[in-house]
Structure to design on (82 residues):
């Protein structure tokens, strides 16, 4: 039973990592918003993002916060992918 839990956790971690890699490979800030939105939509998480006002902060308009936005996206994925 414990092995099954570890396997499920590993699968979840890999799934999150793969989703995050789609976001992390973006180097052009102007494409980050749409890429994150598409990844969340593909995973069915757009309503959760809307409820949390994920895209509603001032960081999305400032390229200086690109790395912060990527980390926020990873945190969001970790919280919502079960």
């Amino acid at each position: 039973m414990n092995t099954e839990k570890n396997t499920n956790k590993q699968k979840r971690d890999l799934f999150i990592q793969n989703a995050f890699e789609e976001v992390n490979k973006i180097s052009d800030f102007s494409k980050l918003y749409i890429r994150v939105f598409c990844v969340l939509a593909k995973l069915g998480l757009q309503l959760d993002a809307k409820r949390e006002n994920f895209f509603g902060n001032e960081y999305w308009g400032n390229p200086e916060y690109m790395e912060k936005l990527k980390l926020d996206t990873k945190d969001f994925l970790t919280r919502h992918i079960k």
Notes: The chain is about 70% helix and 0% strand. The mean pLDDT is 91. The chain has one domain: 2-80. The CA atoms of residues 21 and 74 lie 9 Å apart.
